[in-house]
Design brief:
The complex is a heterodimer of chains A (112) and B (113). Chain A has 112 residues and is mostly beta strands. Chain A has strands at residues 3-7, 10-14, 19-26, 32-38, 43-49, 56-58, 61-66, 71-76, 85-92, 100-102, 106-111. Chain A contains no helices and eleven strands. Helices cover 0% and strands 51% of the residues of chain B. Chain B contains no helices and eleven strands. The chains are: A mainly beta (112), B mainly beta (113). Chains A and B meet through strand 5, strand 9 and strand 10 of A and strand 4 and strand 5 of B.
Chain lengths: 112, 113
């Protein structure tokens, strides 16, 4: 059974801090790892990672994958209150049409 | 820009009642899916469809039925609601099943008493 574990479960930081969110996984046939941001309701896509060592960046967010050690990290620099959300990690391990296995998420709260 | 539309947003049912959660997308996406989200469990795949007339089971299909008669619509039916089906339900779609292009609806919060 595919498994995705995220840590920490929740995090409170001050605006301007840098945070690192962790995602480890166990899947039979790895295809990709994805990060989503969930604010009020619907998750929205952040990154998809398929290869080790290649950092994906979007503004203050970046992510990297280690396929040997089976984990990924999501970094957020200079956090803002608008970064407050649940960050979801998911792994596509089916090899066919989308069958994502999600972690339980990390709840990030950024305070002034 | 409608995207993925789910109705209703909130629903309360009694145990044993049946109901249908509606999902429609206007992006001509082939792939559609239903997830449920529970505290401490993450999102779990219920059913999915790779095109009209084709459906398949996900991780937690028991107690739910789906059909895909058109490209646009993918309703989720609860046959006989149980308290264990209290959850937030999300419909999602993508053009070809590519996860990086998965669009989620705004969710349906369902309570079964």
């Amino acid at each position: 059974e595919d498994k995705v574990v995220q840590s920490p479960l929740s995090l409170v930081v001050h605006e301007g801090d840098t945070v690192t969110l962790n995602c480890s996984y166990e899947v039979t046939n790895f295809r990709s790892l994805l990060w989503y941001k969930q604010e009020k309701k619907a998750p929205t896509f952040l990154f998809m990672l398929t290869s080790s060592g290649i950092e994906k960046k979007s503004g203050r967010l970046s992510s990297i994958l280690d396929k040997k050690e089976l984990f990924s990290i999501l970094n957020i620099t200079a956090t803002q209150t608008g970064d407050s959300a649940i960050y979801l990690c998911a792994v596509d391990g089916a090899g066919t049409a989308s069958k994502l296995t999600f972690g339980t998420g990390t709840r990030l709260q950024v305070t002034l | 820009n409608a995207g993925v539309t789910q109705t209703p947003k909130f629903q309360v049912l009694k145990t044993g009642q049946s109901m249908t959660l509606q999902c429609a997308q206007d992006m001509n996406h082939e792939y559609m899916s239903w997830y449920r989200q529970d505290p401490g469990m993450g999102l779990r795949l219920i059913h999915y469809s790779v095109g009209a007339g084709i459906t398949d089971q996900g991780e937690v299909p028991n107690g739910y039925n789906v059909s895909r008669s058109t490209t646009e619509d993918f309703p989720l039916r609860l046959l006989s609601a149980a308290p264990s089906q209290t959850s937030v339900y999300f419909c999602a779609s993508s053009y070809d099943g590519g996860n990086e292009k998965l669009f989620f609806g705004s969710g349906t919060q369902l309570s079964v008493l």
